[in-house]
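Hi R.,

As promised on Friday, here is the backbone we talked about, encoded as structure tokens. Could you run it through your design pipeline when you get a chance and send me back a sequence?
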């Protein structure tokens, strides 16, 4: 029985624990969910709910698509570089959904759990764009499972109200620049975080908008 319960944990067959929370780190029912949201005590991934304020969802927005992309690129680069201060960052995911439990959510997966814990501890006392940051460890480990598979290609019929993550991507140029900058930074340090000193970590070079 124990082996069976372990095998179905966090799946649709699990009648106790919420599969959506386990897979996505958020659930549309929130605290009213009939199933348990088991918060991890350790994880490589952190979640900052509602951090990105997308101007596209502002009724007064007058930005064109190019300006909206530049706005997002500036945010993405800023967050990436800030998070690199806590340790080696492997993935940064920003939600483009428009439903209450996913809108503006930012997920960051670090190489090591220690980096994620340090980031979570410190970010909860910081502000961004005149708003307090709320940060928590997330159970998400595989964003291929958390992201909507229909959001690319033909498109998802549920649009921004889908309960799976619709990932908002930076421009190809920024993505390439951040990847190369981070690789160069790590190479110059020649380090493995496990054996590196705990001195403040320099960040990859930022672009200017």
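Update: got your reply. Pasting your designed sequence below so it's all in one thread:
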């Amino acid at each position: 029985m124990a082996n069976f319960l372990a095998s179905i944990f966090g799946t649709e067959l699990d009648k106790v624990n919420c599969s959506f929370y386990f897979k996505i780190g958020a659930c549309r029912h929130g605290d009213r969910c009939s199933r348990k949201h088991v918060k991890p005590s350790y994880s490589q991934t952190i979640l900052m709910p509602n951090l990105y304020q997308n101007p596209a969802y502002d009724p007064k927005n007058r930005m064109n698509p190019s300006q909206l992309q530049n706005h997002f690129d500036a945010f993405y680069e800023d967050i990436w570089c800030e998070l690199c201060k806590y340790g080696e960052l492997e993935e940064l995911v920003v939600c483009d959904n428009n439903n209450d439990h996913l809108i503006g959510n930012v997920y960051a997966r670090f190489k090591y759990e220690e980096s994620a814990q340090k980031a979570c501890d410190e970010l909860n006392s910081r502000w961004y764009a005149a708003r307090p940051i709320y940060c928590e460890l997330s159970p998400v480990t595989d964003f291929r499972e958390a992201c909507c598979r229909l959001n690319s290609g033909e498109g998802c019929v549920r649009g921004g109200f889908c309960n799976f993550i619709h990932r908002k991507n930076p421009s190809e140029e920024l993505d390439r620049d951040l990847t190369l900058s981070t690789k160069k930074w790590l190479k110059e340090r020649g380090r493995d975080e496990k054996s590196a000193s705990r001195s403040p970590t320099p960040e990859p070079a930022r672009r200017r908008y």
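One thing I noticed while checking it: The CA atoms of residues 38 and 159 lie 28 Å apart.

Thanks again,
M.
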